[in-house]
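Final report, Chapter 2: Outcomes

The project's central promise was a pipeline that accepts a single protein chain and returns its three-dimensional structure in a standardized token representation, suitable for archiving and comparison. That pipeline is now operational. To close this chapter, we reproduce one record exactly as it appears in the project archive, with the input sequence first and the structure output second.
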Amino acid sequence: MDVDLIFRIAAVGILVAVLGQLLTRSGRDEQALMTTLAGLIVVLMLIVQEISDLFSMMRSVFGF
């Protein structure tokens, strides 16, 4: 696992938190929720890609 992945996830989290707070304070709660869900989907896509790389590496190491 690369440290760069952790920084990307943290950056997405900070950006989503700031946007969520701004949208909530301006009375746009639905858009804040959609922003939070979009951030969650982006982070899940990053993690799924890394897990896929892990499984393909394990498959090559163990010869499956």
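Archive annotation: The helical segments are 3-25, 29-62.
This record, like all others produced under the grant, will remain available to the consortium after the project formally closes.
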